[in-house]
Design goal:
Layout (H helix, E strand, L loop, with lengths): L10 E7 L2 E7 L2 H22 L4 H32 L2
Antiparallel strand pairs: 1-2
Helix pairs in contact: 1-2
Length: 88
């Protein structure tokens, strides 16, 4: 951490996603690294499977893939909460 950096203060980081560099601000570099890894690996997988270099298309399909995973996890979580409520 830089000497002038305060704990929890947003800082600039540089990340690479699917070969492109992005300069972002974050107060959680470790959390951002996990997000970047997920997005990057999803985009690279789609790019390899589709054999395309159309960045916008890859980004949209990656967003849809991640959203689908999120919605499935939310559904599973909601079902778990219902089960827990039934057993109270």
């Amino acid at each position: 951490m830089e000497k002038t950096q305060k704990l929890g203060e947003p800082r600039r980081v540089e990340v690479e996603i699917n070969g492109d560099i992005y300069r972002l601000r974050t107060d959680d570099p470790e959390g951002l690294a996990q997000i970047v890894q997920m997005v990057d690996s999803t985009m690279r997988s789609i790019s390899q499977n589709m054999h395309t270099f159309a960045g916008n298309r890859i980004a949209v399909l990656a967003a849809m893939t991640i959203a689908e995973k999120y919605l499935q996890l939310k559904k599973d979580y909601d079902e778990l909460l219902e089960l827990l409520e039934e057993h109270k």
